[in-house]
Design goal:
The protein is of the alpha/beta class and 286 residues long. The chain has ten helices and 14 strands. It has an eight-stranded mixed β-sheet, sandwiched between helices. Strands 3-4 form a two-stranded antiparallel sheet. A two-stranded antiparallel sheet has the order 6-7. Helix 4 (64-73) crosses helix 5 and helix 7 runs parallel beside helix 9 (240-252).
C-alpha cells in the first residue's frame, strides 16, 4: 500500500468509526482464531484498535481446544450433547482451571502487551452470571449452567474506567458448584444486558450456510423470525444451534444486530465493523 491508499482506507473507515464511537460491542472469541497464534495476534490487534478509537469492547471467550487438550493429558473423556459439552463435576473443575486461569490471563496479557488495557473476569466475579443446572427435554448435560441473570456492574465499571473486560464463561450457583457455560450463550446474554450495538460471534466457518460443506452457499442476512424454519430444514444444526440461538436472544432483547463471522480470516472483525461489505451472516429484526 502506498500512502494514498492508506489514507483512503482511513477515510472510508471514518463513518464507521463515528458510528461505533462510545458504543458497546460484545465479541465472542473462539474457534481457530484462538488456536492459531497468527490469527490470535490479529484478533487482539483488532480489539486494541477498536478500543483506541473509542469503541467499548467486551471480549467473551471459550477455550474448547485448550480444554480438550488438558482433558486428554489427564485421560478424562469428553462428549457433546446437542452441541454442548457434557460436563461432570471433575470436568467442571478442569474447565475452571483452563478458562479462568490459563486462557483468560493469556488473552489479558496479549492485549496489554499491544498497548491495550484489559482486565480478566469470569462469571463468578461479582456474581456476574447467576446460573442453575441446565435441563432441557429431559437431557442431562451435567454441570452445564443455564443463565438466569446477568449482573453487569463489574463489566460496566471496567468499561467506564477504560478497560476491556475479558470474560471466561464459567459460573457458580449458591452452593458453590462450578458450572460450564456455553460461550455463545453467555456472550448473547451479556450483550443483551448491556444493550450492545453489536454482538459478533467468531467461528470456524464463513457464517450460516445452506450447505454446510459449501462456503458459496453463505446466507448473508437472516431475520430472527426465519430461524425456526431454518432449524426445521436442518440448515441450523449441531454446534451452530447455540450460536444462532444466542444471536436471536440478543436481537430480541435489544441488541441492534448480531453477526456470525469467519474467525479464520485475518482482521475479520474490522472487515465486519469498518467497511460497507461486512462479512458472515447478519441476524436482525424485520
Amino acid at each position: 500500500m502506498d500512502n494514498a491508499q492508506k489514507a483512503k482506507v482511513l477515510v472510508d473507515a471514518l463513518p464507521y468509526i463515528k458510528k461505533y464511537y462510545d458504543k458497546t460491542i460484545v465479541i465472542k472469541y473462539g474457534g481457530n482464531a484462538m488456536t492459531s497464534e497468527h490469527l490470535k495476534e490479529a484478533v487482539m490487534r483488532d480489539v486494541v484498535l477498536l478500543q483506541s478509537v473509542g469503541v467499548k469492547v467486551v471480549l467473551v471467550h471459550g477455550g474448547g481446544p485448550e480444554i480438550n487438550e488438558t482433558l486428554d493429558k489427564m485421560n478424562m473423556r469428553s462428549a457433546f450433547v446437542n452441541g454442548l459439552r457434557y460436563t461432570d463435576k471433575d470436568t467442571a473443575e478442569v474447565v475452571r482451571m483452563v478458562l479462568a486461569g490459563k486462557v483468560n490471563k493469556s488473552l489479558v496479557s496479549r492485549i496489554n502487551s499491544l498497548d491495550g488495557s484489559a482486565i480478566g473476569l469470569c462469571g463468578i466475579d461479582g456474581n456476574m452470571l447467576e446460573v442453575s443446572k441446565k435441563t432441557e427435554d429431559g437431557v442431562d448435560y451435567g454441570y452445564v449452567g443455564e443463565i438466569q441473570k446477568v449482573n453487569a456492574k463489574a463489566i460496566v465499571n471496567c468499561l467506564s474506567d477504560g478497560y476491556i473486560p475479558v470474560i471466561a464463561t464459567i459460573a457458580a450457583d449458591r452452593e458453590g458448584n462450578v458450572y460450564n457455560i456455553n460461550a455463545d450463550t453467555a456472550a448473547a446474554h451479556i450483550a443483551a444486558e448491556l444493550k450492545a450495538e453489536n454482538l459478533i460471534m467468531l467461528t470456524d466457518i464463513a457464517g450460516l450456510l445452506k450447505n454446510k460443506d459449501d462456503p458459496a452457499t453463505l446466507i448473508p442476512k437472516v431475520y430472527v423470525s426465519d430461524v425456526p424454519y431454518l432449524k426445521k430444514q436442518g440448515i441450523i444444526s449441531g454446534g451452530m444451534i447455540p450460536k444462532i440461538d444466542g444471536c436471536v436472544e440478543a436481537v430480541r432483547r435489544g441488541v441492534r444486530q448480531a453477526t456470525v463471522i469467519d474467525g479464520r480470516i485475518e482482521h475479520s472483525i474490522l472487515i465486519e465493523m469498518l467497511s460497507n461489505e461486512g462479512i458472515g451472516t447478519l441476524f436482525t429484526q424485520e
